[in-house]
Amino acid sequence: MSISNLTMWVTSKPSLSDQNPLSSRSHLHPFRLPTSSTTTPTTRSSPSPIHAGLRELRERINSVKNTQKITEAMKLVAAAKVRRAQEAVVNGRPFSESLVEVLYNINENLQTEDIDVPLTRVRPVKKVALVVVTGDRGLCGGFNNFLIKKAESRIRELKELGVAYTIISVGKKGNSYFLRRPYIPVDRFLEGGSLPTTKEAQAIADDVFSLFVSEEVDKVELLYTKFVSLVKSDPVIHTLLPLSPKGEICDLNGNCVDAADDELFRLTTKEGKLTVERDTILRALQESLASELAARMSAMSNATDNAMELKKSLSMAYNRQRQAKITGEILEIVAGANALT
């Protein structure tokens, strides 16, 4: 018997309450409790009350517990992987900086000699290749979305300048995004591995090199997520080709087509340094992986906290309904005892 049916059944028998004052108090007090409990959630900060039966609440609590275990495990796995990825990024930076200085000195010497180096040839920009590096998996917050929005913003800038473009997509998330948009020209789809290697970087570098040397594109830009710390990562644009110490590459009309936050432009204009193609790609892959793992660790931590809060709310709702059911059974027993007297 439900509490509402029990309420109608007891209140329809005034003789029971007249015979025993104690029984009237036993009937009146339980009916005040549900009204007070239904009004208390309106004064609390909970967004909405939970309406479900005991069985449904038990199933939801068990489901939330299982989800919490999964997110906690994924958080620990991401934390273990991000430590190795962070070490790879930090250990590779001294080599990259030394290699940049060597290449800068070589490029300075080439400027005074009559030597044709294809990678340093600056020509008016008619077409730009964008190498977009995304992740292979989801459940990492806005990691992939932020980078794709960065790529869309750069594409709009190139369209406003009247410069053609093509995409080299690296990563399953970016591949699926561009496959669903056939109006965006894509030169090649590549998939990264669980750990970036020199072989993968060389495959991207060979494709970029062939596009630039054959003059299919006049400039190559790398879009990836730069690893700053475990709680911060920034999507950036880095010029790969051409290797120019001037820091400005213009189109046919003389307009600068460099991005406002171009990493190579910032380095060459402030410090006079250059970068190297394959090492830059490998470093970008490593930093992108470290940023993805850090974002996944943060997202799974937030998901675990949300699961704990939801489990707490469901447990409170379950205990309220269970207590109401016990109170109803006690009312039935008391009402039956009063009916026999």
UniProtKB/TrEMBL annotation:
<dbReference type="GO" id="GO:0046933">
    <property type="term" value="F:proton-transporting ATP synthase activity, rotational mechanism"/>
</dbReference>
<keyword id="KW-0139">CF(1)</keyword>
<feature type="region of interest" description="Disordered">
    <location>
        <begin position="13"/>
        <end position="50"/>
    </location>
</feature>
<comment type="subunit">
    <text>F-type ATPases have 2 components, CF(1) - the catalytic core - and CF(0) - the membrane proton channel. CF(1) has five subunits: alpha(3), beta(3), gamma(1), delta(1), epsilon(1). CF(0) has four main subunits: a, b, b' and c.</text>
</comment>
<protein>
    <recommendedName>
        <fullName>F-ATPase gamma subunit</fullName>
    </recommendedName>
</protein>
<dbReference type="Pfam" id="PF00231">
    <property type="entry name" value="ATP-synt"/>
</dbReference>
<comment type="function">
    <text>Produces ATP from ADP in the presence of a proton gradient across the membrane. The gamma chain is believed to be important in regulating ATPase activity and the flow of protons through the CF(0) complex.</text>
</comment>
<feature type="compositionally biased region" description="Low complexity">
    <location>
        <begin position="34"/>
        <end position="49"/>
    </location>
</feature>
<comment type="similarity">
    <text>Belongs to the ATPase gamma chain family.</text>
</comment>
<dbReference type="InterPro" id="IPR023632">
    <property type="entry name" value="ATP_synth_F1_gsu_CS"/>
</dbReference>
<keyword id="KW-0375">Hydrogen ion transport</keyword>
<dbReference type="GO" id="GO:0045259">
    <property type="term" value="C:proton-transporting ATP synthase complex"/>
</dbReference>
<keyword id="KW-0406">Ion transport</keyword>
<keyword id="KW-0066">ATP synthesis</keyword>
<feature type="compositionally biased region" description="Polar residues">
    <location>
        <begin position="13"/>
        <end position="25"/>
    </location>
</feature>
<dbReference type="InterPro" id="IPR000131">
    <property type="entry name" value="ATP_synth_F1_gsu"/>
</dbReference>
<keyword id="KW-0813">Transport</keyword>
<keyword id="KW-0793">Thylakoid</keyword>
<dbReference type="GO" id="GO:0009535">
    <property type="term" value="C:chloroplast thylakoid membrane"/>
</dbReference>
<keyword id="KW-0472">Membrane</keyword>
<dbReference type="InterPro" id="IPR035968">
    <property type="entry name" value="ATP_synth_F1_ATPase_gsu"/>
</dbReference>
